[in-house]
Amino acid sequence: MISGLTSGDYRKNSLSLNRSCELVSISKTAYYYKAKNRESDAKIEGYLKLLAQNHKRWGFNKMRLKAKSDEKPWNHKRVYRIYCKLGLNIRIKPRKRIPKGEARMLVQPINPNVCWSADFMSDALSCGDKFRTFNVIDDYNREALLVEAEASLPANKIINLLDKKAVFRGYPDVIRTDNGPEFRSATFKSWALKHNILIQYIQPGKPAQNGFIERFNRTYREEVLDMNLFSNLAEVKEITREWTKDYNNERPHESLDGLAPINFAKKREEALTRFRQENSSFRQY
Question: Structure pTM?
Fold first, then answer.
């Protein structure tokens, strides 16, 4: 009996179970559900801590798959909740935001030392030790100015290499590069500013904007790196030195009227000399 109502009155005014559940927006399954005495989280915590200790670079997905292969009866949502509670999330290094830059058309200069293109390449010795090469060409005649192989090439070292080359050739007006950390470093930027050199960065993910050096890299890869099994860096340097000499003086270049870079430069200089002489005699006349 509720609120003075008789049992008959209560039965007359009561709602059905379906109607009651509908009014409070729950299902009959939830109404009849009885919570189970599930095990504590301690077992899962211990399991995850052990995995994290033995596999420091495993994230949640790896741990979840491992638990599944070990036939653990835990719900993945519960495992993820405990995983986050323990702070096992692997820190993802944020991507460095690089300025998008400006797309510029590749143009062959009409004079030397106007624009140099620079880039790095990587390979390995027969013993598995890795090495890098620092490649620099003059866009004027595609002449290979530098192909230097070293185990490590930080900004200070590439600056020294460029300074040594500039003793005999002079500094360029522009150096075109990608967005590598060596070229983006404060050391390299300060060096360029000191020598009045403009650094022209290509847009990230657009290697075609540095097409002259990319084409050179392909030739160097096919004719030197892929054709030889090097045992030490001295061997890399010796073979590269001989190849560079042949590339600059003998190897025909299709985009240079079939001439080698040095021969192309000589022919261009002779043509410019004749042009100046003809113009000079015309002005005198």
Answer: 0.65
Does 250 share its domain with 212? yes
Specify the number of domains making up the chain.
Answer: 3
206-254 pLDDT, tens per residue? 889 999 999 999 999 999 999 999 999 999 999 999 999 999 998 888 8
Range of the domain at 27: 1-34
Mark whether 169 and 205 lie in a shared domain. Answer: yes
Instruction: Please indicate, yes or no, whether residues 251 and 129 belong to a single structural domain of this protein.
Output: yes
Q: Give every CB contact of residue 240 below 8 A, 6+ residues apart in sequence.
A: 133, 147, 149, 220, 224
DSSP per-residue codes, 55-102: -TT--HHHHHHHHHHTT----HHHHHHHHHHTT-PPPPPPPP------
Q: Is the pLDDT reported for residue 284 higher than 60?
A: no
From the list 149, 96, 97, the residue with the least C-alpha distance to 120 is 149
Select from 143, 161, 144 the least CA-distant residue to 152. Answer: 161
Number of H helices, E strands in the chain: 12, 5
Residue 101 lies inside a defined structural domain of this protein: no
The answer to whether residue 110 is domain-embedded is no
**How far apart are the C-alpha atoms of 188 and 177, rounded to whole Å?**
12
Residue with tokens 């073979």: 239
pLDDT digits (tens, 9 = 90+) for 42-74: 889 999 999 988 888 788 988 888 888 888 888
Q: 116 — phi, psi (to 5°)?
A: -105, 145
